[in-house]
Amino acid sequence: MRKTVGFLLAVLCGIVLTACGEEKRNGENVLQIYYVSNSETKVEMHSHEMESTESEDQLDELIQCLSTNPEKLEYKAPLVMGFQLLNVRREGGRVQLDVDAAYLELPTITEILVRAAIVRTLTQLEDVTYVGITVEGNQLYDSLGNLVGWMNAEQFINNDGNEINTYEPVRVKLYFASEDGTNLIAAYREKHYSTNTPLERFVVEELIAGPTIEGLYPSINPATKVISVMTKDGICYVNLDENFLTVQGNVSTDVSIYSIVNSLVELSNINKVQILINGEVPTTFAATVFERNLDIVTTRDM
Q: Is the pTM of this model over 0.70?
């Protein structure tokens, strides 16, 4: 266990305090520091050239940056937003930050942005994969009452620019493959997603990411890339790359197709789905536009 107060030498503090928030892009060891806007509606990253070379020292340097307000006054460091960082502990590829109870007073969106900024910043280190936050030694729960647990960068979706927009909680119904690959099984997923990302795309990307519940299996080749997702007049057009055509394990093509169709039709603004591969409808597909198919849906054996 290591106390954050005084964990850097005075010399390192001086170096980091002058370096954090500056736009340095010419160095070979440049990482991004994520800050929260004063409006507390988005996160913006600023380039930072690392002074440290050792793994432990680099973590200390990033923590110091996250605790130092940037030169741009319209942004603020996530670790100086009304709560105190009590402790930083590192075990293997995981870093755990313990904060005081004032953290629980953060508004919901602000708290999500603070988490996004911390996780996005620290997981840039090669040997840091997950970041956890505890409150005076206790587990952290989100606004939906779900255990936050260990977080990685993929949980916080970036938009096309350098900002992370407001995150909102969402509960979607996703359809994954059964063990024999011939049927679909529904499961709910609760997560925060960026409002800059269409909910339809979020659903498709979560399907590709695969199930998190035991007894469910991937329905889509995880190598599949989403080219675009667009909805017009109740039809959702999903454009994927050719990896979608390579089925996952023993999953049938129909299961892959209807995992997308059934999941998207659960959204109130979608009635039908057209799946494109590199912009074209494959001749092997049984139809050009698909509707919900509940005949292929079964329940999970308990």
A: no
